Amino acid sequence: MIEQRELAEIYKSIEPYIRLGQNGVTANMHYEVALKAALAKTFDFNAYVSSVESSSHSFYHTATLRGICEDIIVLKAFLAFPAKDRFELIAQTQMTGVYESLKSQYAFFKANRPGQPVLGNKDAEKAEKTEKDKLLKLYGRLGFINLKGKPFIPSVRALAKKAGLLDVYDFFYSATSKWVHFSPQILMRMGWAPDANPSSTFTFSTASFSNYYAGFNAVFGAYLFALFYDCFATELRIDPMVGTYVAELRAYLNDLTRWPEVVTFEEMNIERPNMIFYAAMKLVAEQEAEKLKQGAINNAPIPDVADNSE
Known about the structure:
Number of strands: 2
Oligomer: single chain
Number of domains: 1
Helix content: 55-70%
Strand order of the largest sheet: 1-2
Number of helices: 11
């Protein structure tokens, strides 16, 4: 049986291959550059959360999973379009976002700090509408027409459906949107008391549940990294050796007795299922993991990487 390594060690084996492919030139290849940037973002997040020494600030890392998830969904949906259209979609989505930010920035600073020079002016709203109209026209040409016969910009959820990743979107939206929206669940989860007595004094801190968040980030970060590889390894021409390490990541995940849930038994004060149930489930997972481990290479040769540190 091949010994299972920790996540941080697996990512160390992957890193040289990621660094070899993370450079890109923006001219005439926006989609490929976006893919490379998304790969670097996904890898860097996982390398960090798997090796951070303390979990006390893990609360603040969880929201990043949503961005990684949406990168995968949108880029995979765009992959179904011709290369020229993918280029235009990335470029036009970028310009629309820039002018939307300029509009919001101008309005905010005008109201709150009028003396500071900022990019943006009173014409930013008009420019934002112009860019958005171009994006609407592009989506319309690609078939995104509503029942009234008008083009529309699809939501990320609509693109997830097109990409065949609707279950992934729904799960990560539910799991992570609470970090960027008002959520009583997240606020109440921050409170801990010495016992279950309703009259006990609660102390509120983002460090509460920190081990849970650390585990959540590591497990589902690894899941998303493996998904990214599945979706884009061919497009990015990633070295096939990375596939052996992705298999090792999946073996690690399958070996876990329990993945972190979005709503846990513990926070609901409900007793967990009997450990016999977990043992039976783990036995099935181990059989599958053993197959994956056979393809994992723990001591693979490390390719030469040019030093680009400067």
